[in-house]
């Protein structure tokens, strides 16, 4: 078997892997950085804009690997799926960072009527199914479900604006309405033959669909196909044989505050990893593009620091959870414990809403602001971010905090 010794090896051409390789390439310009990826195209963050101390916006571009190699002449991209690659080459590394992402967690595996959306190929499959569909059932209540309900049109993980430029049109009948079933789960999925054996009266559910979902609230819906938008599972399997990685509860490779896995000299970043350090009170891991970039960058800094025997502080971006995105064409900013995650009943909520314009929710605990959801052009992100980072006691301000007649920015300057 051909063996090559490489100082720096990064696996995965998604945002975490590419950011990590780019950072190493800048820091060690005299070394070759090897980026190994299964897909022919890589993902790069472009037009990065710092919105505030912890919030950043950027576009994600799918690029040929040659573009990355042109920008960083010391990066070598190898299109192959393993550290022992398909063509039999064996890479021995000094330090390795695993950034192989995650895949959709489907409600059932192996059912041809149940689709997940992750990469360009799965989005295309979804698009072709949708073109012929009269009715689609979307299972889940997260990012993808929200984006799908927004438009009845509808390699590496897709990300912001993944549906732009895709003709995601269903048949006319489907375009007419969105029906939401709350507080229930899918009990079972029936193919049309199985459904027929139930002898359901025709007027209750017209027996004309290829697949049916039975919900825990007793309702039964027929549809052309089901989208399982129910989160992701980290892609750890290819790396487990022969290694003793510690695995987190959510199936990711556990990493410490230096992005180190439990195996010496192997780091991990992005969707594949589980943050196993004690987090700041205002940060939580979510498998997002933003965090993939931050972790990829920070992993490279940690690999470099360990190599040089230097100390490194936890990066500031892990102080406060901050995510900016768009839903229904509204700017959406999520800060800190925006959904009162982990706070139990020990919190208060304050709301301000102007229909069609803005929605502001803050989460307070012991008079301190610990989380916020800002929808629309509220212009409050920087002030709220500071209030959360400072943990200033705001009890005296009460509901004035959200009074639209008070210029809160001046107030706390
Ligand atoms: C439909 C959709 C919309 C999304 N929208 C948003 C959004 O608006 N905002 C946001 O912040 N996040 C969004 N996300 C989440 C975001 O895309 C992911 O969190 C992010 O892309 C994770 O980056 P990553 O680099 O860790 O993994 P990935 O982007 O999945 O990259 C993994 C890379 O590893 C390679 N790979 C996998 N296995 C191997 C192997 N065995 N050997 C070699 N290479 C391998 C893959 O080919 C790929 O290049 C969205 C996700 C989806 C699916
Ligand atoms: N604009 C953005 O920022 C976007 C981000 N993304 C990211 O892409 C990834 C994939 O998105 P998505 O699949 O929507 O994942 P998310 O993690 O966003 O949401 C998964 C949803 O599925 C629900 N769920 C989990 N298991 C089941 C089940 N068995 N039956 C019914 N519901 C279930 C969860 O409910 P519960 O909460 O109760 O557990 C949750 O509401 C995520 O990392 C997401 O953050 C995707 C699209 C847009």
UniProtKB/TrEMBL annotation:
Cofactor(s) the protein needs? FAD
Q: Keywords of this protein's UniProt record, alphabetized?
A: FAD, Flavoprotein, Oxidoreductase
The residues covered by the FAD/NAD(P)-binding domain are 9-296
Name of the protein in its database record: Pyridine nucleotide-disulfide oxidoreductase domain-containing protein 1
Sequence similarity = Belongs to the class-I pyridine nucleotide-disulfide oxidoreductase family. PYROXD1 subfamily.
Keyword Oxidoreductase set for record: yes
For the NADH-rubredoxin oxidoreductase C-terminal domain, which residue ranges apply?
326-391
Q: Which InterPro entries match?
A: FAD-bd_OxRdtase, FAD/NAD-bd_sf, FAD/NAD-binding_dom, FAD/NAD-linked_Rdtase_dimer_sf, NAD(P)-bd_dom_sf, Rubredoxin_C
Entry GO MF terms: oxidoreductase activity
Q: Which PANTHER family match?
A: PYRIDINE NUCLEOTIDE-DISULFIDE OXIDOREDUCTASE DOMAIN-CONTAINING (PTHR43429), PYRIDINE NUCLEOTIDE-DISULFIDE OXIDOREDUCTASE DOMAIN-CONTAINING PROTEIN 1 (PTHR43429:SF2)
Q: What does this protein do?
A: Probable FAD-dependent oxidoreductase; involved in the cellular oxidative stress response. Required for normal sarcomere structure and muscle fiber integrity.
Pfam entry (one): Pyr_redox_2
